[in-house]
Specification:
Layout lengths: L13 E4 L4 E4 L4 E3 L2 E3 L5 E6 L2 E2 L7 E3 L5 E3 L8 E9 L2 E12 L3
Parallel strand pairs: 2-10
Antiparallel strand pairs: 1-4, 3-8, 5-6, 5-9, 7-8, 9-10
């Protein structure tokens, strides 16, 4: 009896375009992209400084494209944001550092 693992034959997902380092003003809007490909289509998760970003915050929304949108940025939003694309055969990560500053 030979059992073949279909998942093992598939490559892990690839992030084609990830977030970029950026500085945004307090109360500004921030969009962090995460475009990933894979079979099956990868699940996109976002972390800030290693912790999953809570989606119950009304300022923060993950778009259908996988991008993360943060509205009305606060100084506390400063940090390292990591997009993780995962499929049963593996995962890929892409990080960027976001700084929120008071201007004026």
């Amino acid at each position: 009896l030979e059992v073949t693992d279909v998942v093992a034959d598939r490559p892990p997902p690839i992030i084609r375009q990830g977030p970029v380092n950026q500085t945004v003003a307090v109360d500004g809007t921030l969009v962090l992209s995460c475009v990933a490909t894979g079979v099956p289509a990868p699940t996109i998760l976002w972390r800030k400084d290693g912790l999953l970003i809570p989606t119950q915050d009304s300022r923060i929304k993950q778009q259908e494209t996988g991008a993360l949108q943060i509205r009305y940025a606060k100084l506390g939003d400063t940090g390292r944001y990591t997009c993780t694309a995962s499929t049963p055969s593996g995962e890929a990560n892409w990080s960027a550092y976001i700084e929120v500053q008071e201007f004026g």
